[in-house]
C-alpha cells in the first residue's frame, strides 16, 4: 500500500525518459513517478529505493528521495514563507511548500515566523500542516529540574491554563496564566526558569525574575503606567487580580510588591483607593 506522507521502500518497475515508476511489487497497478533528477545514476529495474510520498502541484502522487523536515505523525519547526488568501505556506524541505490552512492556526502567522506544526491528510487527500495537536506529541521526560534556565518556543496560548511552551522544541512545559505573556507570539523563543516538574513530567516555567530582582523593574513599569493615567492610578492593591492584570500586566502579588517599593521610596501616596504620583 502506498503511504502518503511517509517514507517507504518501493521497487523500480519501469524506466522512462523523465524518471522511473515505483511500486510495492512489479504487478502492482498503483505506480508512483520518481522524477529523473531524483533517480540514482546506476538505478535499474528491480532496485529498491527509499522514498517519501507526497503530491505535486497538480495533486498527483509523486516520490522523492529528498528528506522532508516533517512526516505524517510527527512535528517540526517550519518557517512561514508565504501568506495566501486561505492560509500560509511553509518550507518543509521539498519543492512544493506545505499548506497551513487558516482554520488550523492557533494564532495568525507572518512570513519569517518559525512555528511548531504537525501534518495531516485533509478531506481531499492532500498533506497539510496544523498548529494544533502539538501538546500530545511533546516529550514529558526532560532532563531539567527546578531552578534550571531553559529555552523554549511558544506554540499555543491556552488562556484558561497558561502559555504552552516546547522546551528545546521537544519537552512539554507551561507558563501559568497569571504571568503576563501578552507581548509574546506563537513561534517566539524565550528564556525561562523551571519552577517545578509535575508528576507526569511536564515542566512549569516562569519568565519573571526572582522577586527581589524583578521588583525594581516592576516598580519602574508601574510608574510609567501611573504617568499614563496623568499621575493618578484609579485603583490600588485592593483591586481584583483580574483588574490589576488587565491594566498593568502584573499579578496581584507582583503589583503589591511594586507598590510597596514605590511607597517606601516616597514616590507615590495611597489615598481613597487610588495611587497618586508624588
Summarize the structure.
With 278 residues, the chain is mainly β. Helix content is 14%, strand content 38%. The chain has a five-stranded antiparallel sheet, with no helix packed on it.
Would you write up a description of this structure?
This protein is elongated. The strands form 4 sheets. The protein has a 5-stranded antiparallel sheet, with no helix packed on it. It has a 5-stranded antiparallel sheet with strand order 8-7-6-9-10, with no helix packed on it. Strands 11-12-13-15-14 form a 5-stranded mixed barrel. Helix 1 crosses helix 3. The chain is built from 3 helices and 18 strands. With 278 residues, the chain is mostly beta strands. Strand 4 (48-55) and strand 5 (61-64) form a beta hairpin. The model has no long low-confidence stretch (mean pLDDT 89).
Summarize this structure as a short list of keywords or feature phrases.
278 residues; mainly beta; 5-stranded antiparallel β-sheet; 3 helices; 18 strands; 38% strand; elongated
What is the ordering of alpha helices and beta strands? EEEEEEEEEEEEEEEHEHHEE
The span between the termini is: 77 Å
Provide a count of the helices.
3
Largest sheet: 5 strands, antiparallel
Average pLDDT reading: 89
Strand coverage percent: 35-45%
Which radius of gyration do the C-alpha atoms yield?
27 Å
Shape: elongated
Q: Give the low-pLDDT segments.
A: none
User: Helix content range of the residues, please?
Assistant: 10-25%
Number of strands: 18
Helix/sheet category: mainly beta
Strand order of the largest sheet: 3-2-1-4-5
Amino acid at each position: 500500500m502506498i503511504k502518503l506522507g511517509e517514507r517507504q521502500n518501493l521497487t523500480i518497475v519501469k524506466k522512462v525518459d523523465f524518471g522511473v515508476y515505483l511500486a510495492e511489487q512489479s504487478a502492482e497497478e498503483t505506480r508512483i513517478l520518481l522524477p529523473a533528477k531524483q533517480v540514482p545514476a546506476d538505478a535499474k529495474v528491480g532496485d529498491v529505493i527509499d522514498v517519501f510520498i507526497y503530491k505535486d502541484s497538480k495533486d498527483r502522487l509523486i516520490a522523492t528521495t529528498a528528506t522532508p523536515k516533517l512526516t505524517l505523525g510527527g512535528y517540526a519547526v517550519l518557517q512561514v514563507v508565504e501568506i495566501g488568501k486561505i492560509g500560509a505556506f511553509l518550507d518543509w524541505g521539498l519543492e512544493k511548500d506545505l499548506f497551513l490552512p487558516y482554520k488550523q492556526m492557533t494564532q495568525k502567522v507572518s512570513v519569517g515566523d518559525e512555528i511548531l506544526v504537525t501534518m495531516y491528510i485533509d478531506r481531499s487527500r492532500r498533506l497539510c500542516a496544523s498548529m494544533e495537536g502539538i501538546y500530545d506529541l511533546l516529550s514529558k521526560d526532560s532532563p531539567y529540574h527546578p531552578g534550571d534556565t531553559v529555552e523554549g518556543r511558544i506554540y499555543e496560548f491556552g488562556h484558561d491554563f497558561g502559555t504552552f511552551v516546547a522546551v528545546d522544541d521537544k519537552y512539554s512545559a507551561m507558563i501559568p496564566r497569571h504571568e503576563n505573556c501578552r507581548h509574546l507570539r506563537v513561534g517566539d523563543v524565550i528564556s525561562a526558569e523551571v519552577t517545578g516538574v509535575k508528576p507526569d513530567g511536564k515542566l512549569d516555567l516562569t519568565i519573571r525574575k526572582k522577586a527581589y530582582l524583578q521588583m525594581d523593574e516592576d516598580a519602574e513599569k508601574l510608574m510609567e503606567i501611573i504617568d499614563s493615567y496623568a499621575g493618578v492610578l484609579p485603583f490600588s492593591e485592593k483591586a481584583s487580580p483580574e483588574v490589576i492584570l488587565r491594566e498593568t500586566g502584573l499579578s496581584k502579588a507582583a503589583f503589591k510588591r511594586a507598590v510597596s517599593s514605590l511607597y517606601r521610596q516616597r514616590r507615590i501616596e495611597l489615598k481613597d483607593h487610588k495611587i497618586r504620583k508624588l
